[in-house]
UniProtKB/TrEMBL annotation:
It is found in: Cytoplasm. The gene is hslU. It comes from Thiohalobacter thiocyanaticus. SUPFAM superfamilies: P-loop containing nucleoside triphosphate hydrolases (SSF52540). GO terms for biological process: protein unfolding. This is ATP-dependent protease ATPase subunit HslU. InterPro entries: AAA+_ATPase, ATP-dep_Clp_protease_ClpX, ATPase_AAA_core, Clp_ATPase_C, HslU, P-loop_NTPase.
Length: 452
């Protein structure tokens, strides 16, 4: 659990997202409240539910980015889902509980990766032994035991001279390209088991039944040592990680720390674009379906039951036509914190291009540096890019900061293509260069619509 104070959280978010202070503050408080909740005594703790957030703002201004970065800071499992997905043809009636199931899958993956990292060193040692065993015939008189299985040996034999030499070479990477034959566990059968809704727990039982049937079988593979090493390391790490532990921890992680980002919530209100007759019913139906999740219910997943009471929900929408008050009252009540995000103008675009960690200009500069080309952005050049992106947004469709990606790609297309032949050059991205590459698009709305 993150122990960062709201101020620290906002400072961290500032490294990636320009402006939008009230949204940053709201999510920072929500995160800190989780920590606070864990400090109060247990009876009270169970009563305290998160104050969910409704983010209101046009597309591409950082709503998702704020939530995603927050999740990363908090090491929280995170899922983004479009509320409208549940109104699509073919999806009608698709149970919204799948959001939680997907979130649990994400948490399992996160937890397993963390656990594998923890046993990393031990796994690397074990992999090294197995490679040495494959390189050196086993010292024991076991007949054809060329591929010894160290995990079954009660004690490690002392290194012989040759083994020591090989170990040294192996560590220095001298043997990387050499081929060896190793025994690896046969990949589990490609059986994907789908259980009917509500009976997801059955899937994991069936899955493990199938896995037992394939029962620890191995097959031998010929691989370069470099590849074999990775494979064996992962295999050893997987053996050291306890799946049941991972499951339990992942479920706790979801229950206590999970974040669900519900995008386009405004589109499932009655007043949303193109709303008519029967569509209204299904839109409101989606809100009704979502309500139990947000209010707190138990969802059955293939890894176990998950309570949703303490999951943080961040709903978001542009609310151009609909208003938050068009949501069903119960849902409005469950999204008590309202924050508005501002539309972005030229000034913000300039900052987005240059200030965040790994900003777009930094990314392109680094990419072209690999070709020996130095990109030098001048302040006027950046200003011009920002202005251009803003104008296209105004004239065609406002897609917020996303426009910067398409504009930058277009601007640097020629340079990217030729970079390999221009090693050693320094290219100044100034106002003149920006004009030269983008001028033909500047006056042509139709062309802009297609290209940018
Ligand atoms: N204020 C900002 N600062 C830095 N980058 C931003 C900002 N706003 C948007 N971006 C960048 O623009 C892209 C799109 O932003 P984001 O996904 O947050 O949009 P959004 O507001 O959630 O829109 P939508 O509701 O359509 O999903 C991201 O790559 C993000 O990095």
């Amino acid at each position: 659990m993150s122990e960062m104070t709201p101020r620290e959280i906002v400072q961290e978010l500032d490294k990636h997202i320009i402006g939008q202070q009230s949204a940053k503050r709201a999510v920072a408080i929500a995160l800190r409240n989780r920590w606070r909740r864990m400090q109060v005594d247990e009876t009270l703790r169970n009563e305290i539910t998160p104050k969910n957030i409704l983010m209101i703002g046009p597309t591409g201004v950082g709503k998702t980015e704020i939530a995603r970065r927050l999740a990363r800071l908090a090491n929280a499992p995170f899922i983004k889902i479009e509320a409208t997905k549940f109104t699509e043809v073919g999806y009608v009636g698709r149970d919204v509980e799948s959001i939680i199931r997907d979130l649990v899958d994400i948490a399992i993956k996160m937890t397993r990766e963390q656990e594998m990292k923890k046993v990393g060193h031990r796994a690397e040692d074990a992999a090294e032994e197995r490679i040495l065993d494959a390189l050196l015939p086993s010292p024991r008189p076991t007949g054809g035991g060329f591929f010894a299985q160290p995990q079954e040996e009660p004690q490690k034999p002392a290194d012989s001279d040759t083994r020591q030499k090989l170990r040294k070479k192996l560590r220095e990477g001298e043997l990387d390209e050499r081929e060896i034959e190793i025994e690896v566990s046969a990949t589990p059968m490609g059986v994907e088991i789908m259980a009917p809704p509500g009976m997801e727990e059955m899937t994991s039982q069936l899955q493990s039944m199938f896995q037992n049937m394939s029962g620890g079988r191995t097959r031998s593979r010929k691989l370069r040592i470099r590849d074999a090493w990775k494979l064996l390391r992962d295999e050893e790490a997987a053996k050291m990680v306890n799946d049941e532990d991972v499951k339990t921890r992942a479920i706790t992680l979801v229950e206590q720390n999970g974040i669900v980002f519900l995008d386009e919530i405004d589109k499932v209100t009655q007043r949303s674009e193109g709303a008519s007759g029967s569509a209204d019913v299904s839109r409101e139906g989606v809100q009704r379906d979502l309500l139990p999740l947000v209010e707190g219910s138990t969802v059955s997943t293939k890894h176990g039951m998950v309570r949703t009471d303490h999951i943080l929900f961040i709903a978001s929408g542009a609310f151009h036509l609909a208003k938050p008050s068009d949501l069903i009252p119960e849902l409005q009540g469950r999204l008590p914190i309202r924050v508005e995000l501002d539309a972005l103008a030229v000034e913000e675009f300039v900052r987005i291009l240059t200030e965040p960690d790994a900003s777009l200009t930094e990314q392109y500069t680094a990419l072209l540096a690999t070709e020996g080309v130095t990109l030098a952005f001048t302040p006027e050049g950046i200003e011009q890019i920002a202005r251009f992106a803003w104008e296209v947004n105004e004239r065609t469709e406002n897609i917020g900061a996303r426009r910067l990606h398409t504009v930058m790609e277009r601007l640097l297309e020629e340079i990217s293509f030729e970079a390999a032949d221009r090693s050693g050059e320094t290219i100044s991205v100034d106002a003149a260069l920006v004009d030269k590459h983008l001028a033909d698009l500047a006056g042509d709305d139709d062309l802009s619509r297609y290209i940018l």
